[in-house]
Design brief:
Elements lengths: L1 H10 L13 H28 L5 H8 L1 H8 L7 E2 L2 H11 L8 H23 L11 H18 L1 H5 L9 H15 L2 H20 L5 H15 L5 E4 L7 H38 L4 H32 L3 E3 L14 E3 L23 E5 L5 E4 L22 H33 L5 H16 L7 E2 L1 H9 L6 H17 L8 H12 L5 H10 L1 H17 L3 H21 L2 E7 L6 E3 L12 E7 L7 H14 L5 E5 L8 H16 L3 E5 L3 H9 L2 H5 L4 E2 L2 H14 L5
Parallel strand pairs: 3-4, 10-11, 11-12, 12-13
Antiparallel strand pairs: 1-7, 2-6, 5-6, 8-9, 8-10
Helix pairs in contact: 2-3, 2-11, 2-16, 2-17, 2-18, 4-15, 4-17, 5-14, 6-14, 6-15, 7-18, 7-19, 7-20, 7-21, 10-11, 10-18, 12-13, 19-20, 20-21
Length: 719
């Protein structure tokens, strides 16, 4: 009974092990302060990472609400801080952008579904105790990918730092180039200065006041400034105020398509009712029911196409640059003006504070188009905007088999990368706290966190380096600190969301940049190169391919995995082989590869094979035997130094039998030294030992050389 209880606690309710510790006031107080400290970092960070994932910033708060608590309750690590992280956020955006427009309802639905799939995959691996699959992501692959991802993340925020808008291209480096080009001519200086201020506050506090919450202070200061200075500068205008005919046509098309969309939704509802009636009357597979279903699906396809057309038209509208005409009836044009705006009554549309002579210097952008065709313009910096108050509602992800199949590969990669990030942090903290860590249990915790989060509109999450460091540095003892963090996020969603309205997006971009710069680790690549040129090459190639393939990050990491597996197989197929000969005068072994010339009169050759003898390496072994015969033409004794051979399969045994037979015919006797017991047992079961002779297997070099000396003194070779 005690065994079952122990298994239940360890596997399904691991938090019961640390829950009694909260009775100590010191532990409870430490966890409370640590949880509060992490929350002060998590709230602004989560909104920044949601923006990186292509989601409205408040979805970061949804991802910070439940996953931290669930991961702490059901995971193995006590101090791991789970929630939105940079790399997983970037990979989420990369996986979904080919399927939907960033920030759209469809995009959000896919992100929630992706979280569910990621969680399900991680949970399955944990329950099946298959955490070993993470080993397929070798350290060089992760190092190369992480460095590339950090650069991609930093450069993806440049448009928000400079306040410019550019269309995303097929390749990330093209988008970055367009952003830099646009910034040279059209930098929005208030946005840029807000970003510089945020950078200065965070970097300054890190250096001079490291214990202060630098991210939170930067957010509070810049949000306060944005509110006090009317940083966003919003203005509504009517459709009649627009001069440009092409823009008017764009607006009219959007309004017309929106009206058609309403009609189409009604037709879909009616068609679905007819389809249901057909199923009730004739069955789901009756021709009439199938025809009705075809009509429903066809109407849905039309609706999706129409929604996409509306989005594309609005994107075209947002790309326009607006200037106010200083005089109502003038025909003044400006080089960068795609359209001009004036008041219908003839007066110039300006704020009271704006000098008419300066009106042409103010750049305006379209933020919103309402149902009547009125435009909401903004000439200031972008802010977070309205954040819905209250907790996200419970709802199942929208399960669509076609979409699931498209997301599977990305979900697997995100699952493994996210878990590797989490487990590496957890291991580092476990060494510090002397805590025993269970990787499979951590997989269960991370999986449940993503599944539970997806039921409350969260996107994929993982363990965070920075917040975990803050958590353990603040004195967290148990997973209860994560519960406190979640409670603080809940309080924020209930009561403090109006305060986030004026938070500049440039500040969030600065938060992201500051957070991910630490992921750039050139020394790790150098270390891999010095340790092994193959590993260094894998890291560098993964780094380059990830940058080239971006935003398709999965291609970069899959290429790295394929390359590392290929090199692994190559090394298994052609392991290191050392040729040795015995110095007649000193009796010491000499590496033939380090000698200018081998002693061709030597009749003893030694081959040390440093790998397994299996089907893929048998030909290589034979080639090396032939090579040694060429180096030592008078060789009469071949010693196979087998101390480094860990495995021999059926193909290897057959090859050894063939080599021994052919060499025996050539007058060369094969001797085996220091064969490992399991391998010798296998050779005994196949009859190889009895066939070749037990006396030709030696446990120690002294006995081996005594045997050879005795044979040489007799002047013969046993047949």
């Amino acid at each position: 009974m005690s065994f079952i209880k122990e298994l239940l606690i360890k596997r399904f309710l691991p938090f019961l092990k640390w829950l009694p510790e909260l009775k100590e006031g010191k532990v409870l107080r430490a966890d409370f302060l640590a949880g509060l400290t992490v929350a002060l970092v998590l709230i602004p960070q989560s909104m920044a990472y949601a923006q990186l994932a292509g989601l409205p910033p408040y979805y970061g708060l949804y991802a910070a609400f439940l996953p931290p608590m669930v991961a702490a309750l059901f995971g193995s690590s006590r101090q791991l801080a789970t929630g939105p992280v940079a790399v997983v956020s970037l990979m989420t955006a990369a996986a979904l952008e080919p399927l939907a427009t960033a920030g759209s309802e469809t995009f959000i639905a896919y992100a929630i579904l992706l979280s569910f799939i990621v969680g399900l995959f991680q949970l399955s691996l944990g329950l099946l105790r298959m955490g070993i699959l993470v080993n397929f992501l070798s350290h060089p692959v992760v190092v190369g990918f992480t460095n590339a991802a950090a650069i991609i993340i930093v450069t993806s925020q440049l448009n928000k730092i400079f306040g410019v808008e550019v269309e995303k291209m097929d390749h990330h480096y093209q988008t970055v180039w367009n952003t830099i080009t646009a910034a040279l001519d059209h930098t929005h200086w208030p946005t840029f200065f807000m970003a510089v201020l945020a950078f200065s506050i965070m970097m300054g506090l890190r250096r001079y006041r490291p214990r202060w919450p630098n991210v939170l202070i930067a957010v509070v200061v810049t949000t306060g400034l944005a509110w006090g200075l009317d940083y966003q500068k919003l203005h509504w205008i009517t459709n009649e105020q627009v001069v440009s005919e092409s823009v008017k046509q764009n607006i009219e098309k959007q309004l017309r398509l929106r009206q058609h969309l309403v009609t189409l939704d009604q037709e879909i509802t009616e068609a679905q009712e007819i389809y249901k009636d057909m199923i009730v009357q004739f069955g789901a597979y009756d021709l009439s029911a199938l025809q009705a279903r075809f009509i429903v699906e066809n109407l849905k396809l039309q609706r999706d196409a129409m929604k996409n057309d509306i989005k594309q038209l609005f994107k075209q509208l947002q790309a326009k640059t607006l200037y106010f005409v200083p005089e109502p009836n003038s025909e003044v044009t400006y080089p960068l003006a795609d359209k001009q705006v004036r008041h219908q009554a003839g007066s110039v549309y300006l704020t009271n504070e704006m000098n008419p002579s300066e009106s042409t210097l103010t750049v305006w952008k379209v933020k919103q188009l309402d149902a009547q065709g009125n435009l909401l313009l903004h000439s200031g910096g972008a802010v977070v905007g309205t954040v819905p108050s209250g907790l996200p509602s419970f709802q199942w992800p929208h399960f669509d088999l076609g979409v699931i199949l498209q997301l599977i590969s990305a979900a697997i990669v995100i699952s493994l990368i996210g878990f590797m990030e989490a487990i590496s942090i957890a291991k580092a903290m476990a060494e510090r706290t002397r805590q025993r860590l269970d990787a499979n249990q951590e997989l269960i915790g991370q999986g449940l966190a993503n599944i539970a989060g997806s039921l409350f509109q969260s996107y994929p999450t993982s363990g965070s380096f920075s917040r975990s460091a803050v958590n353990i540095g603040a004195g967290a003892v148990t997973g209860f600190s994560a519960v406190i963090t979640s409670i603080v996020v809940v309080m924020t969603l209930w009561w403090f969301t109006p305060l986030l309205y004026n938070l500049p997006q440039a500040t969030l971009a600065a938060v992201i940049m500051i957070a991910v710069v630490s992921l750039i680790n050139v020394k790790a690549v150098e270390h891999a190169w010095h340790a092994n040129k193959h590993d260094g090459s894998v890291a560098i190639i993964t780094f380059v391919l990830t940058l080239v393939f971006a935003p398709h990050l999965d291609l970069g990491i899959l290429a790295g995995v394929a390359l590392s597996l290929g090199l692994f197989l190559y090394r298994r197929m052609e392991p290191r082989v050392v040729f040795l000969q015995r110095n007649d005068s000193s009796g010491e072994l000499e590496n033939l590869g380090q000698l200018k010339e081998a002693n061709k009169e030597n009749d003893v050759g030694i081959l040390r094979f440093e790998g397994s003898l299996y089907f893929a390496s048998v030909n290589y072994f034979e080639e090396k035997v032939q090579e040694l015969l060429v180096k030592l033409p008078k060789m009469r004794y071949l010693v196979v130094e087998a101390v480094s051979i860990n495995e021999v399969d059926a193909s290897g045994e057959e090859m050894l039998r063939a080599v021994v037979s052919s060499l025996k015919q050539a007058g060369v006797e094969v001797l085996f030294n220091r064969v490992k017991a399991p391998i010798k047992d296998m050779l005994g079961r196949t009859g190889f030992v009895a066939w070749h002779g037990e006396e030709k297997f030696f446990r120690h070099p002294i006995a081996l050389y005594d045997y050879i000396t005795a044979q040489q003194s007799q002047g013969r070779v046993d047949s």
